[in-house]
Amino acid sequence: MTTTFPIKMDIRQNFAMFQANNRIVIVESFDNYIFSVRVGTIKYTDHLDDITARTTEELNRKLRELVNG
After folding, report:
1. 22 domain residue, yes or no
2. What phi, psi does 22 have (nearest 5°)?
3. CA within 20 to 30 Å of 9's CA: 39, 44, 64, 65, which one?
4. Residue 28: exposed, middle, or buried by beta-carbon count in 10 A (0-12, 13-18, 19+)?
């Protein structure tokens, strides 16, 4: 069963968490350009990848492609 996460993040946010079923995606950024993406459960996450984005639209597109396939 594939989990689809409801991704919607603003480029000005430094942190976001998305949950679907018992899985979570955590997105963090210190500079609002490079975003670190982690995936897992509430108790444990693994680093999935880092993405770069300059606009909210680009950020959400890249996040959806990365975590929802």
Report:
1. yes
2. -105, 15
3. 44
4. middle
- Domain housing 37: 15-68
Task: Measure the CA–CA gap between 33 and 31, rounded to whole angstroms.
Answer: 5
CA–CA distance from 14 to each of 31, 32, 33 (Å)? 8, 6, 10
Using one digit for the tens of pLDDT, what is the confidence trace for 22-57?
899 999 999 999 999 999 998 999 999 999 999 999
Domains contained in the chain, number: 1
On whether the CB atoms of residues 13 and 3 are closer than 8 A, the answer is no
Q: Please give the Cα distance from 30 to 32 (Å, whole number).
A: 6
* pTM for the structure as a whole: 0.90
Structure tokens at 10: 């603003």
pLDDT of residue 2: 63
